[in-house]
Design goal:
31% of the residues lie in helices and 20% in strands. The protein is of the alpha/beta class. The chain has a single domain, classed as Aconitase, domain 4 (Alpha-Beta Barrel). It has a seven-stranded mixed sheet, with helices on one face.
């Protein structure tokens, strides 16, 4: 079972895709250019503070708003290992899977977590935080395959012997 640990950034409820990447930055040429402006309306400094392998923990309805695919791409480009939230907007959830970003629904962790602390995720099993285990629902194997491959296109290329 895959396991990883990361520093936590705590965000609130209803983090919409316009907070993740504001509309005015969608005209930039690449995701690498756009990622510098991730979460700017909420916390202008956040994108520059996030490190590779960090984890976002949020409240309910993460990724609501428009269905822009750049939102999960920005989160992934920032180096976020996964997003744990009480709930996700459904289209954002699938866009994230298709872009190789792991999302985990867990209703209780958000109320207990402190920003800057470290959590350990055991994929499809649990999250460990301060000696407590928070159970998580298993993702179907086909979705895990997509995430591990780095996204839907890469998973299909691999499955069809093109990579």
């Amino acid at each position: 079972m895959e396991q990883f640990s990361g520093k936590v950034w705590v965000l609130g409820d209803d983090i919409d895709t316009d907070i993740i990447i504001p509309t005015e930055y969608l005209a930039l040429e690449t995701i690498e250019d756009m990622k510098l402006f991730g979460f700017r309306p909420l916390r202008p400094e956040l994108a520059s503070q996030i490190g590779a392998g960090d984890i976002i923990v949020a409240g309910k309805n993460f990724g609501c708003g428009s269905s822009r695919e750049q939102a999960p791409e920005i989160i992934k480009a920032l180096g976020i290992a996964c997003v744990v939230a009480r709930s996700f907007a459904r289209i954002f959830f699938r866009n994230s899977i298709n872009n190789g970003l792991l999302l985990i629904e867990q209703p209780d962790l958000y109320g207990d977590i402190k920003e800057g602390d470290t959590i350990t995720v055991t994929v499809n099993q649990s999250i460990s935080y301060r000696g407590k285990q928070y159970p998580i629902t298993s993702l179907p194997e086909n979705l895990v395959e997509i995430i591990k491959a780095g996204g839907l296109v890469k998973a299909m290329r691999k499955r069809n012997g093109l990579e």
